[in-house]
Amino acid sequence: MFGVLRRKAAAGASSASVYGNSFYKLKLGESTRRACSVLPEEIRHYSRGFGHVRTFCYLPLAGQTVSSVPKRVVVGSLHQGVDMKIWSRPLSSNSEGDIVEAVVPYMGESITDGTLATFLKKPGDRVEIDEPIAQIETDKVTIDVSSPEAGVIQKFLAKEGDTVEPGTKVAIISKSGEGVNTHVAPSDEKPSEKAAPSPPFPAKEEKEKPTPKVESTPVVQKPKGSPPPPKTSATEPQLPPKERERRVPMTRLRKRVATRLKDSQNTFALLTTFNEVDMTNLMKLRSDYKDTFLEKHGVKLGLMSGFVKAAISALQKQPIVNAVIDGDDIIYRDYVDISIAGLVVPVLRNAERMNFAEVEKEINNLAKKATDGTISIDEMAGGTFTISNGGVYGSLLSTPIINPPQSAILGMHSIVSRPMVVGGNIVPRPMMYIALTYDHRLIDGREAVFFLRRIKDVVEDPRRLLLDVDGLRLKDTFSKHPMSAAVYD
After folding, report:
1. Where are the alpha helices (DSSP H) in 117-251?
2. Beta strand segments in 364-458, E
3. Residue 463 and residue 282: Cα distance in Å, rounded?
4. Which of 130, 263, 444, 476 is an active site residue?
């Protein structure tokens, strides 16, 4: 089948490529000739977008039907040698081309629907191309519905709280702004119509006001004839009135988080082990090199990169913590994807290949995307181990819950100066409690304790990452050299 299309006779339509003034000479039936009689003699074949095309006519082969109704549909059987650019902007339009419809975009491979959370615009507002007009909440992220063209919103085709799927029409937009006033005007007239009969209502209320006075007299007389029964509910707790309560539906993201956390408790044999870390050396390292680090790498040196590198070292020493149960099998992973827990959980891919600067840069990049709401689902999918830093909120100690389908999670907490015994003397030290919650079905207590101990050793002695030293502390190894040991005291 060959698609023959007529170019709209308008200025600016010359941008399309023209292959020739004649297309193909076909032997057409009488019905086909009548159907295509509206076409001019000059027929042009476009090789790019169909922005200026308004009328299509199909030239069918023998035995096929034909329709002369104008349709904005791309012909799927054009010549095989023609290279065409496929436009993927989510919109549809009428035959005149002035009206476009904003639709829900593709939300991700594992997401089939979402909830229309809120409209960012209202009918009559002017919008630019690709400007967000609504937000869709999914189980993982919030997605914007953008305007496909610049124009004025005529009306919405859905309402807040509706469940929508990719391709669902959300709003009608007029590129020229015509027809918007006719849509908005009735809403302005309705209040005036309702306001007209409003004056009689106060008069009726005034007539009804004396009646309660008449009814109030029997109410006073009733207690005289029969005393009120004793209140038996005096000893019962008095519940607050319903007027002081608010019922708000849960967002899809919160419902998804609640479901996953409950599934984690129901599935895993959760057990938590604790330890404490002296943050003196890591904080000193950060203080000494933060300016040089920022000048060279363009990013600040934080404490999180030290814990990420320590967790990677511990996962490599105890690979069972990086594994997961799958049915009757155990899947061991030879890579480390660290999930950074927060409101959303972005993932550091192949973190074992990163140095301190690369870890800090990637964390800052993902945090900025999460704040702006531009983080993608792929950037939050997967992960083999999670680090949760509750210390930024002031948490002193907690038992974090595993993020399924992972097998363990590390919890960081606030740094508090506490008296510690160092070298036989009591001195103040910046201390942090750390917690490891793990799936006891897979990870034994011995492996969990060794894992947490490795993190403690690396954080308290960052040079272990460079020397890959296990066992005794460096200050004990070099105990014969007081100058070396003094660095750690």
Report:
1. 180-195, 200-208, 210-225
2. 385-389, 408-422, 425-439
3. 10
4. 444
| Residue from 147, 143, 133, 43 nearest 100 by CA | 147
Catalytic residue at 45?
no
Please tell me which residue in 52, 183, 297, 440 is annotated as part of the active site. Answer: 440
Whose CA is closest to 367, among 311, 299, 432, 415? 299
Buried/exposed code over 417-448 (b: 16+ C-beta within 10 A; e: otherwise)? eeeeeeeeeeeebbbbbbbbbbbeebbeeebb
Residue 468's alpha-carbon distances to 213, 389, 454, 461, in angstroms, are 91, 25, 11, 11
Is this model's pTM higher than 0.70 or not?
no
Please confirm, yes or no, whether 440 is among the known catalytic residues.
Answer: yes
SS3 at position 305: helix
- Using one digit for the tens of pLDDT, what is the confidence trace for 389-403? 999 999 999 999 999
Q: Express each pLDDT in 182-192 by its tens digit.
A: 444 333 444 44
Q: Which residues pair with 414 in a beta bridge?
A: none
Tell me what pLDDT residue 361 has.
95
- The residue type of 285 is L
